[in-house]
Design goal:
The complex is a heterodimer of chains A (197) and B (630). By secondary structure, chain A is α/β, with parallel strands linked by helices. Chain A has one domain: Pyruvate-ferredoxin Oxidoreductase, domain 3. Helices cover 41% and strands 20% of the residues of chain A. Chain A has a six-stranded mixed β-sheet with strand order 2-3-1-4-5-6, with helices on both faces. In chain A, α1 packs across α7, α6 runs antiparallel to α7 and α6 packs parallel to α8. Chain A is globular. Chain B is an alpha/beta fold and 630 residues long. Chain B has four domains: 231 residues, Thiamin diphosphate (ThDP)-binding fold, Pyr/PP domains (Rossmann fold, 3-Layer(aba) Sandwich), CATH 3.40.50; 126 residues, Rossmann fold, CATH 3.40.50.920; 182 residues, Thiamin diphosphate (ThDP)-binding fold, Pyr/PP domains (Rossmann fold, 3-Layer(aba) Sandwich), CATH 3.40.50.970; 59 residues, 2-Layer Sandwich (Alpha-Beta Plaits), CATH 3.30.70.20. Helices cover 40% and strands 16% of the residues of chain B. In chain B, α1 packs across α2 and α17 runs parallel beside α18. Chain B is globular. The chains are: A alpha/beta (197), B alpha/beta (630). Chains A and B meet through α1, β2, α2, α3 and α4 of A and β1, β8, α11, α14 and α15 of B.
């Protein structure tokens, strides 16, 4: 494992960003590792950009991931994934991203333009080692679990085996933090078996 | 996130993932603190948010959300004077509010241990300035301790109480956002029992600082701070780590960045990490400076430790190169990051940073700017309706003094109803000043919690000096911005008891306001517009202030209540047959629940986001926004 191993969760307020950080950190504790989480948000209101830094190592660490030293970027929203990537990603970063966009308000008022998702993906591909995109709505809508997007992405990360966090540690950490939920368990399983990206 | 009750777990040795703010709340219990008083302020908010739900389960413990920080410091200060352990918590600007008792408290001192937690906010994630509270310790001669992470947030808090009792002085416990909002494993210690009521022993010639007393207390204070300096010299909270030609002095979260930077650059250096940053250990710093040819100072915001180092080097005639902000290696603005520290170190040792950041930065150049995603008033927020009405009634031409809360977000288009703001309560007082030097209409807005915190003196001022200003109180029944803490208007206390709420209209009438009205902003937008117009005319005709209380609960509280009861009003929708795609709803309200269908050019309501306030119905000139039949 890269020591420390750095995971960033990027999205929009209300998408379960902070919860995801707690799940990853709890899984790290289950693996006998030492996690540190840095929670970042603008004025503490909903709807803005939110990043959660999760750092996993064997010693005490600061809460922020150094630019370029990001290993896994979990992107809950395409434009926020690109924004986070520009701030933190490097050649070794693996991106796992939902392709379902949430346009910011300026886009609705037609003062801003939302970049096409394909161009976001190609920008990410230029910057990062690998980009795994998932049409999360098409997977989660049939099981009526749109709000389990964060769990789906964690499931995909677990299935790809790219982090020091094992599948069982992540599953148990999720149950620890969120309690037993069929929808979350289903979303996690669907993530594990996802190979669309 | 961690449930407040989990913070009361009595099993010593348990390890939990805690936010530093949660670790401080746990520390309160482990330190045997008897009373905590605070006014909420981010980045310190989670301390009170946890304590309020822990408090009813801790025997002999008292917690309150005080009306403001000055009140909180006086409440907690008195408890410590009486002889029990106490705590006051605030954000950086909150200590400015509490500055008056802060300085007096140092003169009279305390009998029980007292800690004042102040959370500074480098980068201003949620504050109006990034003033560096460390200078309060220097100016007030109050010892200061700074933790670097969640584990230290608890362990150093326990040390702070010991130090406070040894010196009979309150201790400033200074954190920064990046410490408050870091989550890491923290090990629980034992919980002591708390004393029942104690007897206040009179000692007026100590605790009443009339000049004759104060003249004796000031030399005493200087003696105490000298004792503190001796403690600081040998305290394990100030320590060195590593070895090398280069010396680095640091404290707080920067310590972690320094460690990581050294590792990243594979560089050897000796670090002096200070946990007690006032008074600094003079002898320790002296020998550290003498030992190294070059010493780098890494600290966010002002050159506080740097100035100390330069002072000591000058006095002791030590020939050492002190590198810091004065030569421009570090900035005096915004929070630091590992990259900032790595780059400064690389520059000093004339080495490559090891990561090709230029290449990473270049990638951004090829991309179009990404649209920003600013925080917005929530869907269903009553402030949106009120500001829309204020703006419509005054055609955007009045002056709109604003205040501190979620509603300051009305600065952004399309509401644009925030023109001037200094601090808590300044909406009313700046309106007073403006009303005397201009003939423009003035409509100021203040939230309910801010009204109680510091609005009242402004109201009295406006009444007595007859300032013709319109005051709109945005009463959303909570302190929304910092996470829904109760205030005197809500009827709930910090101990989670139900009490009689203080009525804002009654208060205004009692203070002598002749024009006081209460209105629900969701009842009728056209009527709300009319009310604002009438109020503005009344202030001009009567040359006196008027108050309109716009009262409706925060949208997040309403949504939670509906989830609890299952009782929802009928849904709203845009009738696309009637909509003529004028986009007035999108352009005038910026509601997060409305979006543009790019194919039709018409607005759509996202029913998963809509909080069913119906404000948009009144905004549509076509009558295209409708409510489904219930």
């Amino acid at each position: 494992m890269q020591n420390p191993f750095n995971i960033l969760i990027a999205g929009v307020g209300g998408q379960g960003n902070v919860t995801s950080g707690k799940i990853l950190a709890t899984a790290a504790q289950r693996e006998g590792l030492r996690p540190v989480i840095g929670e970042t948000f603008g004025a503490s209101r909903r709807g803005g950009t939110v990043y959660t830094h999760v750092r996993i190592g064997d010693t005490d660490l600061g809460p922020l991931i150094p630019v370029g030293r990001l290993h896994v970027l979990l992107g809950l929203e395409p434009m926020e994934t690109l924004r986070a990537s520009l701030e933190f990603a490097g050649r070794n970063t693996i991106v796992i991203m939902s392709s379902v966009s949430i346009p910011p308000i300026g886009v609705h008022a037609r003062t801003d333009e939302y970049p096409p998702v394909e161009s976001i993906i190609s920008s990410l591909e230029k910057m990062c080692a690998r980009v795994h995109t998932v049409d999360s709505d098409s997977i989660l809508r049939p099981i009526n679990a749109i709000r389990s997007l964060n769990i789906l992405l964690i499931g995909i990360m677990a299935g790809l085996g790219i982090s020091p966090l094992g599948i069982e540690s992540l599953r148990l950490a999720m149950l620890d933090i969120l309690g037993p939920s069929d929808k979350n368990l289903q979303a996690f399983e669907l993530g594990l078996s996802d190979n669309t990206g | 996130m961690t449930k407040p009750k989990e913070l009361l777990d009595d099993s010593k040795g348990t390890v939990k993932l805690l936010l530093a703010n949660e670790a401080i709340a746990r520390g309160v219990v482990e330190a045997g603190v008897r009373l905590v008083a605070l006014y909420p302020g981010t980045p310190s908010s989670e301390i009170g948010n946890n304590l309020t739900f822990m408090a009813p389960h801790i025997p002999n413990f008292y917690f309150e959300f005080s009306t403001n920080e000055k009140v909180a410091l006086e409440v907690a200060g008195a408890a410590a004077v009486a002889g029990v352990r106490s705590m006051m918590v605030c954000k950086g600007p909150g200590l400015n509010v509490a500055a008056d008792p802060f300085f007096s408290l140092a003169y009279v001192g305390v009998r029980g241990g007292m800690v004042i937690v102040v959370a500074d906010d480098p980068s201003m994630w949620s504050s109006q300035n990034e003033n560096d509270s460390r200078y309060y310790a220097l100016m007030g001669n109050i010892p200061m301790i700074e933790p670097a992470d969640p584990a230290e947030a608890k362990s150093l808090l326990l040390e702070a109480y010991t130090l406070s009792e040894k010196l009979e002085l309150p201790v400033l416990f200074r954190t920064t956002t990046r410490v408050n909002h870091t989550r890491a494993p923290v090990e629980f210690g034992a919980i002591p029992e708390l004393p029942e009521k104690i007897e206040f022993k009179k000692e007026p010639f100590r605790f009443v600082p009339i000049p004759a007393v104060a003249r004796k207390r000031h030399p005493w204070l200087l003696e105490q701070i000298e004792k503190a300096r001796e403690i600081s010299e040998t305290s394990s909270l100030n320590f060195t780590e590593g070895s090398g030609n280069l010396g680095i002095i640091t404290s707080g979260v920067s310590f972690n960045y320094v460690r990581e930077a050294l590792q990243s650059l594979e560089l050897d250096a000796e670090i002096l990490k200070l946990g007690i940053t006032h008074p600094v250990p003079e002898e320790m710093i002296k020998s550290f400076l003498a030992k190294h040819k070059r010493v780098l100072i890494v600290e966010e915001l002002e050159p506080f430790l740097e100035t100390h180092a330069r002072r000591i080097a000058q006095r002791e005639e030590i020939s050492v190169e002190i590198l810091g902000k004065e030569q421009g290696y570090f900035s005096r603005t915004f929070e630091y990051s590992p990259r900032i520290v790595i780059e400064a170190l690389a520059k000093i040792i004339n080495r490559n940073t090891g990561i090709n950041w230029d290449a990473i930065d270049d990638m951004e150049k090829d991309l179009p700017d990404l649209p920003p995603r600013p925080p917005l008033l929530c869907a269903g927020c009553p402030h949106r309706a009120t500001y829309y009405a204020i703006r419509t009634a005054t055609r955007g031409k009045a002056i709109y003094p604003s205040d501190i809360g979620c509603y300051t977000l009305s600065i952004a288009p399309p509401l644009e109803t925030a023109d001037i703001l200094f601090d808590m309560g300044s909406s009313i007082t700046t309106a007073c000043g403006l009303s005397q030097v201009t003939d423009q209409d003035i409509v100021c807005t203040i939230g309910d919690s801010t009204f109680f915190a510091s609005g009242l003196p402004g109201i009295v001022n406006a009444v007595y000096n007859h300032h013709p200003i319109s005051i709109v109180v945005l009463d959303n029944r909570t302190t929304a911005m910092t996470g829904h803490q109760p205030h005197p208007g809500t009827g709930v206390t910090g101990m989670q008891e139900e009490v009689k709420p203080t009525d804002i209209a009654d208060v205004c009438i009692g203070l002598g306001v002749q024009y006081v009205k209460v209105i629900n902003p969701f009842n009728s937008i056209p009527n709300l517009v009319k009310e604002v117009r009438e109020m503005v005319s009344w202030t001009k005709e009567n040359n006196a202030p008027a108050v309109l209380i716009s009262k409706a609960p925060c949208a997040l509280l309403t949504a939670a209540e509906r989830r609890r009861t299952g009782d929802y009003p009928a849904k709203y929708f845009v009738d696309s047959d009637v909509c003529n795609a004028c986009k007035r709803c999108l352009n005038r309200l910026s509601c997060p629940a409305m979006y543009l269908n790019p194919d039709t050019g018409k607005a759509v309501i996202d029913e998963t986001l809509c909080n069913l306030c119906g404000t948009c119905v009144a905004v549509c000139p076509q009558g295209a926004i409708k409510q489904e039949d219930a």
